[in-house]
Specification:
Layout: H1 7-31, E1 37-39, E2 45-48, H2 50-55, H3 61-64, H4 88-93, E3 112-115, H5 119-125, H6 161-178, E4 188-190, H7 218-233, H8 243-246, E5 247-248
Antiparallel strand pairs: 1-2, 2-5, 3-4
C-alpha cells in the first residue's frame, strides 16, 4: 500500500503524465487524417468520407495528396495550390500556407541561371557586325549588357529583357525557338530546383498562357480528382447526373 505521504506526489505525477499525453496526442492530431470532411460551397454542401476512402477503398494518401512526394511530407489543403483564382490576394498570402520550401517547386518549377552563349565566337559568326545584336550608337554609345537597359518586364516602348534578347538571337536561330518550351535549354542552363535558393520568377516570364490556365482552379481540382477516379474504377458518383449524390441540397 502507498504511504499517505506520497499521495500528493502521485497525484502530481498522474496529472503531469495526463498533461503530457494530451500534449502528445494534440501534436499527433495535427498530422492525423480527418475522418470525414464537410465542404461548404455554392453547389451545396458535400460530405466526403475521408477515412473510408483511404482505409476501406484502399487508396494511398499520395493518390489524392499529390504534393506528398517524400515520406515525411504533410498533406495540405487543396486550396493552398488550387485557389478559386490566382489573384493578388493569392500571390500576397500563398507563401504562408506551406510548411516549408520544398512545396514551392511544384509550381515554381524551373529557373534559369547561366546563359549558354560564346560571345567571342559570335563576333566571328556576325562578321564583326556588332549591330547584329547590339544597337547603334544612338541608343548604345558603347555595346554593353542588354540587361543594363532592358528590365524583366517590358512595355510598349521598351521590350523586356527576354523578348529583346530573343528577338535578336532569333534572327539566326529560328530553329532553336521552334519547339517552344522544350527548346529553352539550348541557351539557358536550368538550375537544380531542389538546391535553389533565389527569387522566383513570375510564370509569365516563360509561359504565354494566363497563369489561371496552368493550374486547375479549386472547383475543377476537386471535380476532376473525385470524379476521374470514380469513373476509372466504375464506383462512386460521377458524370452529369450525379451532382446530388455529392452535393446535399
Ligand atoms: C480519396 C482521396 C484522399 C485520400 C486517399 C486521402 N486524402 Fe487526405 N484529404 C483529401 C481531401 C480531398 C482533403 C480536403 C482538402 C481540403 O480541404 O482542401 C483531405 C484533407 C486531409 C488533411 C487536412 C489538410 C488540411 O490542412 O486541411 C490531412 C491532414 C489529410 N487529408 C491527410 C491524409 C493522409 C495522411 C492520408 C493517407 C493516410 C490521406 N489524407 C488520404 C483526400 C484524400
Ligand atoms: C503543393 C501544391 C498542390 C497541392 C497541395 C495540390 N495540388 Fe493539385 N496540382 C498542383 C499542380 C502544380 C498541378 C499541375 C501540374 C500538372 O499538371 O502536373 C496540379 C494538378 C492537379 C490535377 C490535374 C490532374 C493531375 O493529377 O495531374 C488535379 C485533379 C489536382 N491537382 C487536384 C488536387 C486536389 C484534389 C488536391 C487536394 C487533395 C490537390 N490537387 C493538392 C499542385 C498542388
Ligand atoms: C500552386 C502553385 C504555387 C505554389 C505551390 C507556390 N506558388 Fe508562388 N506563385 C504562384 C503564382 C501563380 C504566382 C503569381 C505569378 C505570376 O503572376 O505569374 C506566384 C508568385 C510568387 C512570388 C512573386 C513572384 C513575382 O511575380 O515576382 C513569389 C516570391 C512566390 N510566389 C514565392 C513562393 C514561395 C516561397 C512558395 C513556397 C513557400 C510558393 N511561391 C509556392 C504559384 C505558386
Ligand atoms: C550574336 C549577338 C552579339 C554580337 C554579334 C555581339 N554581341 Fe556583344 N553582347 C551580346 C549579348 C547577348 C551580351 C550580354 C551577354 C551576357 O549577358 O552574357 C553582350 C555583351 C557585350 C558587352 C558587355 C560585356 C560585359 O560582360 O559587360 C560588350 C562590351 C559587348 N557585348 C561588345 C560587343 C562588340 C564590341 C561587338 C562587335 C564586335 C559585339 N558585342 C557583338 C550579344 C552580341
Ligand atoms: C543603353 C540601353 C540599351 C541597351 C544596353 C540595349 N538596349 Fe535594346 N533597346 C533600348 C531602347 C531605348 C529601346 C527602344 C527604342 C527602340 O525601339 O529602338 C530598345 C529596343 C530593343 C529592341 C526592339 C526594337 C528593335 O530594335 O528591334 C530589341 C530587339 C532590343 N532592344 C534588343 C537588345 C539586345 C539584344 C541588347 C543586348 C545585346 C540590347 N537591346 C541592349 C535600349 C538598350
Ligand atoms: C549572326 C547570326 C547569329 C546570331 C544573331 C546569333 N547566333 Fe548563335 N550561332 C550562330 C552560328 C553561326 C552558330 C554556330 C552554328 C550553329 O550551331 O548553329 C551559333 C551557335 C550558337 C550556340 C551553340 C549552339 C550549339 O548547338 O552548340 C548558342 C548557344 C548560341 N549560338 C546562342 C546565341 C544567342 C544567345 C544569341 C543571341 C544573343 C545568338 N546565338 C545569336 C549565329 C548567330
Ligand atoms: C538562342 C538562345 C535563346 C533561346 C533558345 C532562349 N533564350 Fe531566353 N534569353 C536569351 C538571352 C541571350 C537572354 C538575355 C540574357 C541576359 O542578357 O542576361 C535571355 C533572357 C531570358 C529571360 C530573362 C532573363 C533571365 O535570364 O532571367 C527569360 C525568362 C528567358 N530568356 C526565357 C526563355 C524561355 C522560356 C525560352 C524558351 C521558350 C528561352 N528563353 C529560349 C537567349 C535564349
Ligand atoms: C524559367 C521558365 C519557367 C517559369 C518561370 C515557369 N515555367 Fe512552367 N514550364 C517551363 C517549361 C520549360 C515547361 C515545359 C517543361 C518540359 O516540357 O520539359 C513548363 C511546363 C509547365 C507545366 C506543364 C504543362 C504545360 O503547359 O506544358 C505547368 C503546369 C507549368 N509549367 C506551370 C508553371 C507555373 C504555375 C509557373 C509559375 C508559378 C511556371 N510554370 C513558371 C518553364 C517555366
Ligand atoms: C482515387 C480514387 C478516388 C478518389 C480520388 C475519390 N473517390 Fe470517392 N470513391 C472511390 C471508391 C473506390 C468508392 C467506392 C464505391 C463503392 O465501393 O461502392 C468511392 C465512393 C464515393 C462515394 C459514395 C460512398 C461513400 O463512401 O460515401 C462518395 C459520395 C464519394 N466517393 C465522394 C468522393 C469525393 C467528394 C471525392 C473527392 C473529394 C472522392 N470521392 C474522391 C474512389 C475515389
Ligand atoms: C464526387 C462528388 C461530386 C460530384 C459528383 C459533383 N461535385 Fe461539385 N463539388 C464537389 C466538391 C468536393 C467540391 C469542392 C467544395 C469546396 O470548394 O469546398 C465541389 C464544388 C462545386 C461547386 C462550387 C464552386 C464554388 O466556387 O463554390 C459547384 C457549383 C459544383 N460543385 C457543382 C457541381 C455540379 C453542377 C455537379 C454535377 C454536374 C457536381 N458539382 C458534381 C464534389 C462533387
Amino acid at each position: 500500500m502507498l504511504n499517505k505521504r506520497y499521495a500528493p506526489v502521485m497525484v502530481a505525477v498522474v496529472i503531469l503524465l495526463a498533461v503530457s499525453m494530451v500534449g502528445y496526442t494534440r501534436t499527433q492530431a495535427k498530422t492525423e487524417m480527418p475522418v470525414r470532411i464537410l465542404f461548404h460551397n455554392n453547389g451545396g454542401k458535400v460530405i466526403f468520407s475521408h477515412l473510408v476512402h483511404h482505409r476501406n477503398y484502399k487508396i494511398p494518401c499520395a493518390d489524392c495528396h499529390h504534393e506528398m512526394t517524400h515520406a515525411e511530407d504533410k498533406a495540405l489543403a487543396c486550396g493552398s495550390c488550387h485557389p478559386v483564382a490566382f489573384d493578388e490576394h493569392y500571390v500576397d498570402n500563398h507563401i504562408a500556407s506551406f510548411p516549408d520550401k520544398k512545396y514551392c517547386i511544384q509550381c515554381h518549377h524551373i529557373e534559369y541561371e547561366h546563359l549558354i552563349f560564346d560571345h567571342d565566337e559570335h563576333i566571328e559568326f556576325a562578321e564583326d557586325n556588332c549591330q547584329a545584336c547590339h544597337h547603334g550608337e544612338d541608343i548604345e554609345p558603347e555595346p554593353g549588357q542588354c540587361k543594363s537597359c532592358h528590365e524583366d518586364k517590358g512595355d510598349d516602348d521598351m521590350p523586356g529583357l527576354a523578348s529583346a534578347a530573343h528577338k535578336r538571337c532569333q534572327g539566326c536561330h529560328e530553329d532553336m525557338f521552334e519547339q517552344g518550351l522544350t527548346s529553352c535549354t539550348s541557351c539557358h542552363e536550368a538550375v537544380d530546383m531542389s538546391q535553389y535558393d533565389g527569387d522566383f520568377s513570375s510564370c509569365g516570364q516563360c509561359h504565354n498562357e494566363h497563369t489561371k490556365d496552368l493550374v486547375l482552379n479549386r472547383m475543377n481540382a476537386f471535380h476532376d480528382q473525385c470524379m476521374d477516379c470514380h469513373e476509372r474504377k466504375g464506383k462512386g458518383p460521377f458524370g452529369e447526373n450525379s451532382c446530388f449524390k455529392c452535393h446535399i441540397r
